[in-house]
Fold this sequence. Notes:
Elements: E1 2-5, H1 14-20, E2 27-34, H2 37-48, H3 58-75, E3 80-86, H4 90-97, E4 104-109, H5 114-117, H6 131-141, E5 145-151, H7 159-168, E6 173-177, H8 188-197, E7 201-205, H9 211-218, E8 224-227, H10 229-232
Parallel strand pairs: 1-2, 1-8, 2-3, 3-4, 4-5, 5-6, 6-7, 7-8
The structure holds flavin mononucleotide (FMN).
Flavin mononucleotide binds at residues 6-9, 11, 31-32, 84, 108, 110-111, 149, 177, 205-208, 227-230.
Amino acid sequence: MIKVVAPMAGITDADFLNKVIPLGFDVATLGGYSLDAPTIEASRKIIERGRKEFDFPLDEIFSHIEGEVASIKKFNSDVKVSANVRATTPQPIIEVGNINDLDIVEINCHCRQEEILAIGCGQEMLKRPDLGDFISEVVDNVSCEVSVKIRANVDGVDTLKIASIIDDAGVDYLHVDAMKMGVFDADYGLLKEICNNVQIQVIGNNSVNNKLNAQKMIETGVDGFSIARGVISGNLDFNLSDF
Length: 243
Ligand SMILES: Cc1cc2nc3c(=O)[nH]c(=O)nc-3n(C[C@H](O)[C@H](O)[C@H](O)COP(=O)(O)O)c2cc1C
């Protein structure tokens, strides 16, 4: 079972990840980072209204990520490092995917902040008619593994169809925030359907903050699970080594 620290903008930097990796994580996710002018501008607007975000200018972001990867590898050489990223075109994502020692580049098709949606990024990517081509272009031009992080149950989006497009695009991981509006638990039924329909590795996400929920997630057939809010305290109430 692959255990992943999920990305949290403004929080999951190398210092934070180095503190929580020893809890037993196999993959540590940096970011999310904005990589081009439109996404960087959107991030700044999000910061202006008081939400946490990483804020790096275009001429620093790539070397910053490289430095963060090196800081994690220095203390946790066995962990895979992933970078969750947002951009309006594949090119900057490809640049991150060729950073030395980065193991996974994760395309963010998940963010739902209105400034990101307004430029067609985050979960709005799920509505792009060329989503498969966008992802394939990244896959074909990077030296590391590729993950795509999606939000499930987005209005007007058929999650199973999207999972199949991502499967066909040749990525290594499909990372699913199995959120369901109005429910304080993951959509385990949908995760099970996704796992039955795709060949690639599925990382399930949402509400893994106790042992019972971790077990329910695993029973859907996922290859791994990720945790965001549950690691902020650095103090989960179960042992990752139990799974
Ligand atoms: C403060 C905060 C920031 C987040 N930032 C990102 C992000 O930058 N990229 C992303 O893909 N998901 C982001 N997420 C979503 C989490 O990775 C995760 O999908 C979500 O919180 C559900 O998982 P959980 O129940 O384990 O927290 C963020 C979540 C929180 C709470």
